[in-house]
Amino acid sequence: MKFNCNQSILSKTLNIVSKAVPTRTTSKIMEGILIVAKDNKLILSATDTNILIEETIYTEVIEEGEVVIPSKLFTNIIRMLPNENVLIHFNEVTKEVNVDCKNSTSKIVGFSSDEYPKIKTEDINNEIKIEKELFKNMVQKTAFSASVEESKGVLTGILIEINENEIKMVAIDGFRMAINKSNIEGKNITQVIVPAKLLLDVSKIINTENDNKFIEVKSNDNKIIIIFDNTKVIINLLNGEFIKYNNIIPKNSDISIRVIKNDLSESIERAAILTNEQNHNLIKFKIEDKEMELTSLSEIGKINEKVEIIKDGPDIEIGFNSRYLIDLLKVIEDEEIMIHMTNSVSPCLIKPLTGEKYVYLILPVRIN
């Protein structure tokens, strides 16, 4: 195998693909990146068997072939080279990969591609196109509500529902829930659960600056395939039944509060200075008349904040985990929001002033 490639393009591609290289493995070949050179293009891929990232570069291929190169070493060598043409040659007999660029020459011991895992993606049942910006935003506005505890199974994932020109993403960790939905073109009906961490990682490599504004999302019974620009990502789905989230959403509320989002967010962040994990990051809310008073208390101090509101319903005192509120307020773009409550122990809903593009639910913390 032998090919020429621009250093800058190769370095950027390696940075993306290497995100799928496992951080811990007992297999040396799994620490590598598979490079396939054919038809004047390079196909670079890496996998930890849960996610595969594949990138295509169009360049000069002198001799076709395949090799697996240790990811960390190869990425670091290419990154440090000047922005010039790089000539890479793999010797099938010695298993050496030669990297030549201007006055620099490196040799790396490579691996035959025969034992590198191949990910199959037959029997695609569903396929849609969706705007990159919309997909990124929906993932980032739900992923934080998924559980990070592996023992919670499907709750570590984001439920993606596509039904009659609508896409919906849902994440729940047992203490909070995020639902985002939007209209799309297409009538494919599907429901999959995708690991939230992997989906969030993918959202970060989607470039919304170029001319191609759409991504393709495909799925079958055990995988989701996301294709954009010259990138293909394959993720193993989570198996199991997701919580019937519609049953969790309160149908009625006794208290409705309208508040400026930034005012509330800034007050919570200041009050949260005194909170900690031992007291569940507790902030106490005293809501009466046209004012919301926030209080955080510890053995070293006390912080009080007041926020103007428009309230409909009785007064209430309620406690919340400040970290959960900060997380969700960060992803809301609206200037004003509605908060709906029933009592000090029932779930609290946060919604836009109008419409149903998102719903956030958070459980209160009991106040002693």
Using the CA coordinates, give the radius of gyration.
Answer: 25 Å
Q: What fraction strand?
A: 35-45%
Mean pLDDT: 94
Helix/strand class: alpha+beta
Uncertain runs are none
Number of domain modules: 3
CATH architecture of the largest domain: Roll
**The CATH top-level class label of the largest domain:** Alpha Beta
The fold-level CATH name of the largest domain is DNA Polymerase III, Chain A, domain 2
Q: What proportion of the residues is helical, as a percent range? A: 10-25%
How many E-type strands? 26
Q: How are strands sequenced across the largest beta sheet?
A: 14-11-12-13-26-25-24-18-22
Query: Sheet with the most strands?
Result: 9 strands, antiparallel
Q: At the fourth CATH level, what is the homologous superfamily of the largest domain? A: DNA Polymerase III, subunit A, domain 2
Structure in words:
A nine-stranded antiparallel sheet has the order 14-11-12-13-26-25-24-18-22. Strands 6-2-3-4-17-16-15-10 form an eight-stranded antiparallel sheet. The chain folds into three domains: 2-115, DNA Polymerase III, subunit A, domain 2 (DNA Polymerase III, Chain A, domain 2, Roll), CATH 3.10.150.10; 126-245, DNA Polymerase III, subunit A, domain 2 (DNA Polymerase III, Chain A, domain 2), CATH 3.10.150; 249-362, DNA Polymerase III, Chain A, domain 2 (Roll). By secondary structure, it is of the alpha+beta class. Strand 20 (291-298) and strand 21 (301-308) form a beta hairpin. The longest helix has 11 residues, at 7-17. The N and C termini lie far apart (70 Å). The chain is elongated and about 80 Å long. The chain has six helices and 26 strands.
